[in-house]
TrEMBL record:
<keyword id="KW-0964">Secreted</keyword>
<keyword id="KW-0325">Glycoprotein</keyword>
<protein>
    <submittedName>
        <fullName>Gamma-interferon-responsive lysosomal thiol protein</fullName>
    </submittedName>
</protein>
<dbReference type="GO" id="GO:0016671">
    <property type="term" value="F:oxidoreductase activity, acting on a sulfur group of donors, disulfide as acceptor"/>
</dbReference>
<dbReference type="GO" id="GO:0005576">
    <property type="term" value="C:extracellular region"/>
</dbReference>
<comment type="similarity">
    <text>Belongs to the GILT family.</text>
</comment>
<dbReference type="InterPro" id="IPR036249">
    <property type="entry name" value="Thioredoxin-like_sf"/>
</dbReference>
<keyword id="KW-0732">Signal</keyword>
<dbReference type="InterPro" id="IPR004911">
    <property type="entry name" value="Interferon-induced_GILT"/>
</dbReference>
<dbReference type="Pfam" id="PF03227">
    <property type="entry name" value="GILT"/>
</dbReference>
């Protein structure tokens, strides 16, 4: 069976009906695009395996190529109304989609940041920049859940954070991003207004609070398990150095050492800034 046939078969038989209906042709195109990217790294002896839990392809191989061509893991721990996070997603992170570096990156978003848990059973969330940030964090979490493909959910997250920057880091009219991207609002709104939204946030809270070493500020950028700390703005350089593939992407070859912003300290948001955190309204979407 050729690549198109494999893609159609997987799309029809492995994808949940709700996702196929929501994703439509976009979902199938993204599926084939992901297959095409990975096929560039396939050598003799490899075979495809679909992972329904992760909604992604993995390549099973009996050769050394499996390890050699492994994508670089890039984790971004952030909160939606922190100026440094919004600028990082709007400008810095956008570059890897423009220059093709995303093809060698396994990008993972964690929208929780410097929030804290409290209340009964630790299920009330207190956000550093108030209840609006709690809402936007949940919107991000639900978008990632609703649209597993990174290219699709990043389009939506980027739209929101661009509006945050334009609105001087205040709550924007984020629902306009449904119209801007052309994505159906139903799966995100159902998630946000139901129990799934809080479930996702608590999951991200656990992931953030389990970091070793603990994060000190956001955006907190981690490459292959190693925090970049104050060098987060230089993440592309670190990704290219970490990549072990046989063919270095052109974006890496053309990449000069990234310049760290002189005003970085004014953009990042440190953990436990009492004046902001103590006055933050709580978020408890489930009664």
């Amino acid at each position: 069976m050729d690549g198109i046939g494999i893609g159609i078969g997987i799309y029809l038989h492995e994808f949940p009906n709700s996702y196929r209906q929501e994703g439509g042709i976009y979902g199938f195109v993204e599926l084939m695009r992901q297959m095409n990217w990975a096929m560039n790294d396939v050598k003799a002896g490899g075979e495809w395996q679909w992972n329904p839990r992760k909604s992604s392809f993995t390549l099973a191989s009996n050769t050394a190529d499996k390890k050699v061509n492994k994508k670089v893991k890039l984790d971004l721990y952030y909160e939606t109304l922190c100026p440094g996070c919004s600028k990082f997603m709007t400008y810095d992170l956008m570059e890897i989609f423009a220059n093709g570096l995303i093809n060698i990156i396994d990008l993972h978003f964690v929208p929780y940041g410097n929030a804290e848990l409290g209340g009964q059973n630790n299920t009330t969330v207190y956000c550093q920049h108030g209840n609006n940030e709690c809402e936007l964090n949940m919107v991000h979490a639900c978008a990632i859940y609703a649209w597993p493909y990174v290219n699709k959910h990043f389009d939506f997250l980027h739209c929101i954070e661009h509006l945050v920057v334009q609105n001087n880091y205040e709550m924007p009219e984020w629902e306009s991003c449904f119209g801007e991207t052309g994505f159906d609002s139903t799966p995100v709104m159902d998630c946000k207004n139901g129990p799934k939204g809080l479930e996702l946030i608590l999951r991200y809270a656990n992931e953030t609070n389990s970091l070793k070493p603990p994060h000190e500020f956001v955006p907190w950028v981690v490459v292959d398990g190693k925090p970049l700390r104050e060098h987060g703005d230089e993440f592309m350089t670190y990704v290219c150095k970490a990549y072990k593939g046989k063919h270095l992407p052109r974006a890496c070859k053309n990449l000069n050492d990234q310049i760290v912003s002189e005003v970085k300290e004014n953009k990042i948001c440190h953990v436990k800034e009492p004046a902001k955190l103590s006055s933050a309204p709580k978020m408890s979407p489930v009664a």
